[in-house]
Amino acid sequence: MNLAGSIDNLYNNANDKIILCTIAFAILSSVILICTYFYYVPLGVDGGWYSYPAYELSKGEDPNTNLLSIQELQEKKGINAKFGFSTRKLRLIPVSLWIKLMGYNITRLKYYSLLELCILFILVFYTFLIHASTVKKALLFWCIFITDSLIISLGASDVRPDLAVAIVSILSFIAISKIIKSIDILWLFVGGISCFFLFSFHITAALPLSFIVFYTLCAIIVFWRSLNLAQIYSLVIIILSGVLGVLYSKSIVNIFLPTKIIPNLKSPPLFDKISTLISSGFVPIISKEFHRWTEYFFISNYANFLLLITGIMLCIYYSYLLITSQPRTVRISKPTKEFLITFFSCFVSIIVLALMDPHDTPHHAVPLIPFFILLILKVVELMGKEEKKAIFFILFIIMLSSSLKIALSAKITINSIQNNYSNTKVEEALQNEFSPEKKYLIICPTELWPYFPENSNITIVDKRYLKKRNELSGYINQVDYIVLNNELHTTGIKDTIYKWFPEIKHKTIARIGNSNSLDAFEIVKLYYD
Questions:
Q1: Torsion (CA) 490, 494, 495, 500 in degrees, nearest 10
Q2: If we measure between CA atoms, which residue out of 145, 114, 164, 113 comes closest to residue 405?
Q3: What pLDDT, on a 0 to 100 scale, did the predictor assign at position 273?
Q4: pTM
Q5: What are the Cα distances from residue 394, in Å, to 19, 22, 112, 306, 380?
Q6: I need a labelling partner for 478 at 20 to 30 A (CA). Which of 2, 48, 204, 222 fits?
Q7: Is the CB of residue 45 less than 8 Å from the CB of residue 16?
Q8: Which residues, 6 or more positions from 351, have their beta carbon under 8 angstroms from its beta carbon?
Q9: Cβ–Cβ < 8 Å for 472, 441
């Protein structure tokens, strides 16, 4: 493929100029939504749980520090958070290095997440470039990916591990794609390493790993005659490295992230959840996946949903034609084989997602999205004369998706301005209230940790420890503040505390937004006689 020549052709054709305008609009709308999420939307719940251990690691502390008792945490300097489960995975290492180099306030932490988003965008484009017949198609399908609202929200307002899992997964897949074309020692090394460490980034890596393993096995079987032994051995090595990475993931994490604080778990909770899910029958699984995908394709992602449904229908239709109308004696073309491999690999990954993920969160599906879009790209390239209609439909989808992103940005911005809410205002409120010279015990969500002043001495007790009155009564007289975000407002934790301990006097020091808005923030100071 002549990249320079293909790009020049985009400017020489009137239709291609329309495509360029569509691509530019998609990029613009994505940048606007990224900036909106970055400035106005607070750090997510999981973002706090997955980033705080990296802060501890950056100080040279144990990544499971959050499992210590409240009394033990109060003896430690710095910001300390108490929540009851371990998020110790390899992804903590790059985040901790970033915090150590750049600092840990909310803006710098979000910059790291944006960096992951940019890397993912680049790798996904390169993946489509490898598999598309033209640069134009690669750019169009890349625009579908970069206008995904959920992916943008993860990159601009959260520090969850999903983007990191997607990055390592795409690296593995690129290596496999390159080796299928021709043997390359560099890509063998990249594929083997990335596949080996993939599962150690987060347990949800099992989902993209299932796609990668099945795709590679099918490629070896289908392209057996066109592959030389070096290519076959290389692909097998990558698969085996992924399998070994799963089997020894605990040992890998223990080597790179040693800990002396072991979670007090009698049995693996995730394994129990998966066993319960599978044994519960077909209906709960369908209900779980229905909730996942309806939440994924919320209003600003409706265009992506329309494309996905259309793509699935086309894939089923072309698969049916190939199975029923293709005589066995006729040789199937290489693009057709690649489509079939991708189609069945996506199907396997969806089954693994349904059976092996007990949670219905849409974020876990993010690492699979590039492969779903790749599948639609494959089927479009099989459409022959109908391809022009498909491209027109994709242009419509991108324009609609981009418009919805602009609308979502406007909605978030208007709501935040009306409620006088932003990440900066929350940070300023906390910076003004808490002094680095004093020690505080605070009831608040963990995700507020990067908003507190640097060098402050604060112990955070996460909301999960407020379920029982007798547990809270052991340290309530030491609590200096209750800091609430919107989630704590809606759960009524503040009123519950006041009801349990009516003798405690309290005063609201600062309030940003209100409990009826998307975002609400409040600092309450407690007084004791």
A1: 140
A2: 145
A3: 63
A4: 0.90
A5: 10, 10, 32, 10, 10
A6: 48
A7: no
A8: none
A9: no
